[in-house]
Every structure is written in structure tokens, then in C-alpha cells.
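Students often ask why inverse folding is considered easier than folding. One informal answer: many sequences map to the same fold, so there is more than one right answer. In these notes we will look at a single instance of the problem. The structure comes first.
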């Protein structure tokens, strides 16, 4: 110590520096001298070390800083000179860090330990030992939180991490680096919550965690920032992270609440406002989708409609409008579905979904059995349908729905148009013609009824191959036409003179027989028994008409008797024909063909031949008791 003092007094600073370095090396607390020294010696030596170590560290730290301020001279070898300067500075910083570190390691608990540790971190950072600097900074910040520069140290550690990222190549190593930095930022935010830099640190944590899909951490970090109401922009950014984290975590009820509040928070004209409202609407839409998947279509419909009420200008509002209608239909609230579909069509005429509105309305009207409304939509669809087969189907269905709605006039018009327009397929055309005949019958329009009955018969006869149904309808139509002919025939009275009225009556009978024979020829069992019965009755009608015809005036008793004999001679063969036909019809029952018309033939025979057909079986009374 005396030698060093002499050198200092002599003005030999370089020699003093060498001597002090020699001293701290020889008497270091980690050396052999210290290990053997007594307590008194250690105390005096320690005092000197506490002086020399900071002096040496400060000297080399300053030397390093001085070296970095020296600009490289201009010239061809300026790059080499610059490199030498950097190397010199680094060497000085390294020595400074070693002396700072030696002090920290040698005298734990010393009042200057936090300061020495901080300065060591600074010198480590300045010569590029960033990882070591981070550790030193963090020790200062979190081991010595009362140190005046503790917060600076913590923030310096965070800032230092950014310098180490470019050197990381492997994804796994980068992950570990990010976790370390994140941990450092979290420690800073907790330890120095009142520091002005904590807000940006928390925002960085939240932003990076969100980018890393760690939505829980992102939410926690961002939520911590909500208490700072003075920083409006920071508040908005924090809420966006919270809302987006909830959305990406599928917590759509929470994200909806956050986006709704953000929408109120953002100033008009803020470019983020549109996106926030879009995400708000999307949050509600996703809740609706979840409700559909449950399935709970009514809840889904209400969610879809909330978009229309709250964010009608969002890009999903149009789809939500349509989806709400579909959901209400699935929930069996067809009236509400119809209201939404009709309003959609009115608001979005050119939208692609509008093309399907009519079909969806038809489904709803069908469910409500509102056949007239359904038919009206089918009419509209048919007019817009380019494909002929589909157009045909729609027109036929519209006709049947008008029919179900008891809109007889328009149903007739649609059936008539269909029957005239579409020859194939035969099945639907025959049904249309059959229904036209029925509707005209209900309306009392006999001529039009007869026209479509005749059309049905003629159309069947023109077919190369018909179905059982078309055959049945043709036979029925032929029977209806025969009935009309028979009514006309029955209305002809045989009046005097017979030579005038009898030919008309005979002509009517032949036409009736021909019409019923036409029906019979189709070979349909029900129509055949009906035709047989009516043919028998046609002969019987002629026979009875002759017997009941008007007698000529002025005949005496003998002439009248002779006239009646002549009538009976004409009438009897006709009655015999009637009996033969009825008997043939009755014999069908032998083969299991027993219906109302067979029964009618039997009843007619009972009147014509009561001895044979009007018999009743007589059963003797009996007792169950034995006497």
C-alpha cells in the first residue's frame, strides 16, 4: 500500500494502475492469501479491495467509452483502424465487467453491491456479452428492487433481449428465447407497475402473446392495462386484443360484449371502427351457428336477427337475414320465416339468394297449409324457370295447390293450361283432365265437363302404352260420357205418333249402348260391372218406354188391345236382353267380383223375375234347450 501511495504522489498513474491490479489479484477473496489470513488481516485487506476494485472498474469502463468515441481516421486502411478501436474498447469493457463482478462476488451485502452489479451489466452490454448483461440487469432489478435504478435495470434487460433475437436460427431455440423475454417483461410489469414504461411493456406482452396464440396471457396482460384511463389509445388497443382473443378462443359471447363496447369507444372516423363492427357481427353470427348445431333453431334465429337490429350495415347482415328466415322455418315458426323471406326479397332483389326465396316460401306455405299463397309462388317460379321439365312440374303443382285452396276458377285455368301445353308425361296430364271434368261438374258446366271427358278418352286411345291409372281414368271418363248419353236417351219420350219419336228413342238407345260398350271394352272391373248394369237398364228403359208410350187417340177397344199386343211384342225381346245382361253381370259374383253394380243387377232381376230372384231364405226357429 505504501508503494502504491508513493507512485501516486510521484505522478506515475500507469504504474499505480498496474500496482492496484497486482494487489487485487494477489489478495482476492478467492485466492490462497485470503484463505490463510486472520480476521484482522481480512478486514484491512477487504477495505483496500473495496476501494481498488471500483477504481479499476471505473477506470477501464471509462477507457472503453473513450475508445468508442475515437473516430477511425480517413484513408485506405480506415476499416482496419476502426476494428482496432472496437477491439480496444471491448478489452477495456471486459476488464471493467470483471472488476465490477469481482466486487459483487467478494462483498455480498455491501451497500454498493446493487450499483456495482448495475455497472457490470452496463459494461457487459457495451462489449456485446448481452446474455450475461441480461442476467446482471435482472439481478439488480429483482434482487435489489429498492435500488434507485432498479426499474432502469429491469427495462434494460427487456430491451437487451431484442438484440439477441437475430442470432437465433432454430425454431425451438427461438421459442425458449421468447419465453425468457416474456418472463422478463412479466416480472417488470409486476415489480414496477407504477413505472411509465410498464404500459408499453404490457402491451408488448399482450401483442406478442396474441400473435403466439396464447390468448389467455394476451387477455391477462391487456386487461391489466384497462385501469389506465388516461391513455385512450392504449385502452383501445388493449380492448381489441381482449376481444380478438375471446373471438379466437371461440368465446363469442365475451367477444361480442367487448366488440360492442369498442364500437362505442372508438371515435367516428377511426378506420378500425368498421373492422370492429364486422367482428361484432361475426361474434353474434358464430353464436347463431353454435345454436343451430345444438340444434336450437329458435335461439339461432334470434341471434341472426340481433345482427339485423344491432349491426345492419355489417357484411354478414344480408346472410344473417336469410339465415334467420331459414332458422325460424326449422323452428316451425313459419309466419316469422315468411315475413323475413318477403322482406329479404324486397331489400335484396339482385342478391343471389333471392332466387331461392320463392321455393323457401312455398315450403313454409305448405307447412301452414296456405295452398293459395304457395301456388302463387309456384306460378312466379314457373315464369322464371328456364328448364322446361322443371317448369312443367311447377305449373302442375301450382294447379293442384290452387285446387286445394278451393280457388276453383284459377285452378281450372291452371289445369286447362297444363293439359293443353304438356302432353307428356301422360300421368299428370290425365290427372289434370280428370280434375277439370270434376271441377266443371261442380260448376254445373256440362258441356265443358263433357269436353274434358272426351279428351281423356281420346288421349288414352292415342297412347301406345298406358298405365293402370290412366286406363282407370279413361274407363271412368268413358263411363261418365256414357252416363251423359244415357241421360239424354232417357229424356226422349215416346209420344204419338210413334213413327216419329220411336226412331229418335232407338237412336238414343243405340248411342247409349255404344257408349257403355266403349266403357266395357277398357276391361276395368269396376267400370265393367257398371257398364253391364247400365246396358241392361238401357234395354229395360226402351222396353218400359214402349209399354208406357202414349196410345193413339180414337182407337176402339179391339184396336187398342191389338195395339198393345204389338207393343208387348216389341218390348218383350228388349226385356229379355236386359235380363240376359243383368244375369251375366250377376254371375260375376261367382268369381268374387261383387260390388254395388252387381248388387244393382241382382235387384233389377228380382223385380223382373221375382219368382227366381226375389226368394228369401226361411229359417226355422230352434231352441238351445233339450226337453
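Output (designed amino acids):
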Amino acid at each position: 500500500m505504501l508503494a502504491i501511495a508513493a507512485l501516486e504522489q510521484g505522478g506515475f498513474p500507469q504504474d499505480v494502475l498496474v500496482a492496484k491490479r497486482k494487489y487485487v489479484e494477489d489478495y482476492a477473496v478467492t485466492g490462497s492469501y485470503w484463505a490463510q489470513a486472520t480476521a484482522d488481516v481480512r478486514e484491512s485487506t477487504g477495505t483496500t479491495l473495496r476501494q481498488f476494485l471500483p477504481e479499476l472498474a471505473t477506470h477501464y469502463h471509462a477507457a472503453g467509452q473513450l475508445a468508442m468515441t475515437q473516430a477511425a481516421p480517413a484513408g485506405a486502411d480506415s476499416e482496419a483502424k476502426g476494428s482496432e478501436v472496437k477491439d480496444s474498447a471491448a478489452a477495456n469493457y471486459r476488464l471493467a465487467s470483471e472488476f465490477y463482478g469481482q466486487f459483487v462476488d467478494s462483498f455480498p451485502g455491501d451497500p454498493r453491491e446493487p450499483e456495482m452489479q448495475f455497472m457490470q451489466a452496463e459494461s457487459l452490454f457495451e462489449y456485446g456479452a448481452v446474455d450475461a448483461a441480461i442476467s446482471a440487469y435482472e439481478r439488480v432489478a429483482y434482487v435489489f428492487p429498492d435500488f434507485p435504478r432498479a426499474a432502469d435495470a429491469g427495462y434494460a434487460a427487456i430491451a437487451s433481449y431484442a438484440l439477441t433475437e437475430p442470432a437465433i436460427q432454430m425454431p425451438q431455440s427461438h421459442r425458449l428465447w421468447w419465453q425468457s423475454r416474456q418472463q422478463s417483461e412479466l416480472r417488470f410489469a409486476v415489480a414496477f407497475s407504477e413505472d411509465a414504461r410498464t404500459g408499453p411493456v404490457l402491451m408488448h406482452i399482450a401483442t406478442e402473446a396474441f400473435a403466439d396464440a396464447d390468448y389467455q396471457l394476451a387477455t391477462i396482460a391487456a386487461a391489466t392495462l384497462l385501469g389506465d384511463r388516461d391513455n385512450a389509445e392504449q385502452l383501445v388497443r388493449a380492448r381489441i386484443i381482449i376481444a380478438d382473443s375471446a373471438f379466437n378462443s371461440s368465446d363469442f359471447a365475451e367477444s361480442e360484449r367487448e366488440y360492442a363496447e369498442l364500437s362505442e369507444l372508438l371515435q367516428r372516423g377511426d378506420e378500425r371502427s368498421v373492422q370492429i363492427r364486422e367482428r361484432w357481427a361475426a361474434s353474434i353470427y358464430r353464436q347463431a351457428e353454435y345454436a343451430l348445431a345444438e340444434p336450437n333453431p329458435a335461439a339461432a334465429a334470434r341471434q341472426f336477427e340481433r345482427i339485423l337490429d344491432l349491426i345492419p350495415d355489417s357484411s354478414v347482415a344480408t346472410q344473417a337475414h336469410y339465415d334467420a328466415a331459414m332458422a325460424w322455418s326449422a323452428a316451425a315458426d313459419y309466419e316469422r320465416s315468411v315475413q323475413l323471406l318477403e322482406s329479404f326479397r324486397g331489400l335484396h332483389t339482385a342478391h343471389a339468394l333471392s332466387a331461392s326465396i320463392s321455393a323457401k316460401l312455398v315450403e313454409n306455405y305448405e307447412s301452414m297449409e296456405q295452398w293459395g299463397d304457395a301456388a302463387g309462388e309456384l306460378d312466379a317460379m314457373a315464369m322464371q324457370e328456364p328448364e322446361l321439365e322443371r317448369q312443367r312440374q311447377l305449373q302442375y303443382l301450382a294447379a293442384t295447390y290452387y285446387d286445394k285452396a278451393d280457388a276453383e276458377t284459377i285452378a281450372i285455368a291452371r289445369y286447362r293450361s297444363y293439359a293443353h301445353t304438356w302432353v307428356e308425361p301422360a300421368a299428370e296430364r290425365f290427372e289434370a283432365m280428370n280434375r277439370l271434368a270434376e271441377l266443371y261438374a261442380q260448376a254445373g258446366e256440362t258441356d265443358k265437363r263433357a269436353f274434358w271427358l272426351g279428351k281423356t278418352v281420346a288421349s288414352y286411345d292415342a297412347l301406345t302404352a298406358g298405365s293402370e291409372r290412366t286406363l282407370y281414368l279413361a274407363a271412368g271418363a268413358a263411363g261418365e260420357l256414357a252416363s251423359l248419353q244415357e241421360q239424354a236417351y232417357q229424356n226422349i219420350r215416346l209420344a204419338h205418333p210413334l213413327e216419329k219419336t220411336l226412331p229418335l228413342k232407338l237412336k238414343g238407345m243405340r248411342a247409349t249402348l255404344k257408349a257403355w260398350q266403349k266403357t266395357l271394352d277398357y276391361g276395368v272391373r269396376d267400370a265393367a260391372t257398371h257398364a253391364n248394369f247400365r246396358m241392361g237398364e238401357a234395354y229395360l228403359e226402351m222396353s218400359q218406354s214402349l209399354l208406357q208410350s202414349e196410345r193413339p187417340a180414337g182407337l176402339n177397344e179391339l184396336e187398342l188391345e191389338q195395339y198393345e199386343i204389338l207393343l208387348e211384342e216389341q218390348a218383350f225381346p228388349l226385356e229379355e236382353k236386359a235380363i240376359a245382361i243383368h244375369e251375366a253381370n250377376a254371375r260375376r259374383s261367382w268369381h268374387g267380383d261383387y260390388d254395388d253394380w252387381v248388387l244393382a243387377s241382382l235387384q233389377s232381376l228380382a223385380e223382373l223375375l221375382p219368382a227366381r230372384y226375389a226368394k228369401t231364405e226361411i229359417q226355422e226357429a230352434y231352441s238351445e234347450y233339450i226337453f
